């Protein structure tokens, strides 16, 4: 009975737990470009949660559209969409390490033919965050696709095992 009273007294002395507001991060990347007969558009929103100040976990949604214009054989539309759970940790004044497991589905459509394929990529790398005001930041990071090292998984929808990203978080 004495331990029960002591436990209740100790619990009343603990500080209030902070609310979850302010621990969530929102952001992502938006991109696009045109080169010759190719148009590319992409959007990748992300939401994360700071477990404690330097450590964040979250998920990134991905949609990429690439169109190859061809008047002779018909246009080719490539849709890629998927999810990528990630974690990152800030190691020193804006510098951070990042790990991500990306699962993508690619659908290529030309005339009446459709071909679909799954891609899975495991990325690791690092980057730098430049903080603005109120904890908002822009970031740049370089990631390496370690899945490209396995002989059975050489396919990637990126042209290189290296990926460079520039984005923002609120």
Offer a few descriptive terms.
single chain; 170 residues; mainly beta; Porin; 8-stranded antiparallel beta barrel; 1 helix; 8 strands; 7% helix; elongated; disordered N terminus
Quick gist of this model?
With 170 residues, the protein is mostly beta strands.
The CATH topology name reads: Porin
Strand order of the largest sheet: 1-2-3-4-5-6-7-8
Helix content: under 10%
Shape: elongated
Compressed to H and E, one letter per element, the order equals HEEEEEEEE
Sheet with the most strands, sense and barrel status = 8 strands, antiparallel, barrel
The tally of strands reads 8
Would you mind describing this structure in some detail?
The protein is mostly beta strands. It has a single domain (22-169), classed as Beta Barrel (Porin). 7% of the residues lie in helices and 65% in strands. It contains one helix and eight strands. The protein has an eight-stranded antiparallel barrel. It is elongated. 11% of the residues are buried. The model is unreliable at 1-18 (pLDDT under 50).
List the helices and strands and how they pair.
Layout: H1 2-13, E1 24-35, E2 38-52, E3 55-68, E4 76-92, E5 95-110, E6 113-131, E7 137-145, E8 162-169
Antiparallel strand pairs: 1-2, 1-8, 2-3, 3-4, 4-5, 5-6, 6-7, 7-8
